[in-house]
Amino acid sequence: MPTISMFYGILIRMFYKDTDKHHLPHIHADYQGEVAVFSIPDGEHLSGKIPPSKAKLVIAWIEIHKDDLLADWELVVNGRPPFKIKGLDQ
Question: How many angstroms separate the Cα of 62 from the Cα of each of 16, 42?
Fold first, then answer.
C-alpha cells in the first residue's frame, strides 16, 4: 500500500485494487498505529478510528486535493502506482 502523502504525523495511503470492502474511492489515514478510512468524494468517515483533531485535518486535506485523489484512485484500481500529493504542512 503506497503512501501518497504525509502531514502532521498522518500517513495517507491507497490500496491497489481496494474496491471490494468500501466500493467507492477512499483513502486510509494512519496516525500512530490507528487507521481510519475516508471517502474521497465527500470526506465521509467510513471505518476505523484516529483522533478527532487528526480526522478534521484529513477531511480538509481531502477537500483541497479531491481532483488529485480521484486521479490517483483511477491509477491504483488499474494496478498502477499513484502520484504523491502535498500535505497540509508543505
Answer: 19, 8
